[in-house]
Structure formats: structure tokens, C-alpha cells
Amino acid sequence: MSTLERLQTILMASYPLERGQLSPDALLSSLDIDSLGVMELLFAIEDEFNLKVPNDTQNLKTVGDVVDLIDHLQQSQTAGSDAVIQANEAGRANPVGHHENTVAARRLP
To answer: Can you say how many angstroms the Cα of residue 35 is from the centroid of all Cα atoms in its chain?
Structure first.
């Protein structure tokens, strides 16, 4: 399912809207989604897409703007997660005597 389709599903669950109304160029204001509604939508996006949306997110005028935000966050947060995973795997592949030091420390009186 595309980002747009997943966003449409979220919006249809929260508002009396139909998928046909939720084209990328549809204005959020024309869909009766006010600033509080946008904030609630961002919380739902965090849950649905497992993302952290920054507090300073603004200028979301259309459904397409929200899709672009989600896609951008997925790319940037996935890249950050991949870097952490690679660092963790590198640490596991090349341990620096962690176990030996722990065992030696237990033998000390």
C-alpha cells in the first residue's frame, strides 16, 4: 500500500471523507481539517508509520504535503536507523575483549 493510500485510510477513519476526496492536491482546510486536526493527524502518522514527527512541522497545506513529509521522514529516519544497526553489527563483529575483561575482573580479589 502506498503512503498516499495509508494516509487516506487514516483520514477516512478520523473524518467523514471518501478516498476520492483525498487526492494529493486536496487542501486540508477544504476537508475541514484545522490546525488541531493536523496535530492529531501527525500523532496518527507517528503510530501508523512508526515515525517521530518533529514538533516544528508546519506548512502542511495539502494531502500531498503530508505524503511528502511522511516519505521524507521515512527516508531520513530509516537512514539513521541503518547507521545505528551497522555500528552495532560492527561492534559485535569486532569485540574489544569485552568478555575477557569481565572474566578477569571477577577473578580479582
So the answer is: 20
| pLDDT tens column, 17-54 | 999 999 999 999 999 999 999 999 999 999 999 999 98
pTM for the whole structure = 0.71
Instruction: Report the pLDDT value the prediction gives residue 77, as an integer from 0 to 100.
Output: 82
Total number of domains in the chain: 1
Q: Distance of CA 87 to CAs 18, 20, 68, 93, Å? A: 45, 44, 29, 10
CATH of the domain at 75: 1.10.1200.10
Residue of 102, 17, 25, 32 whose CA lies nearest to 68:
25
Taken in order 27, 33, 35, 37, is the CA torsion positive or negative? negative
Q: Show the domain range for 92.
A: 3-107
Contact status, residue 104 vs residue 83, Cβ threshold 8 Å: no
In one-letter notation, the amino acid at residue 101 is N
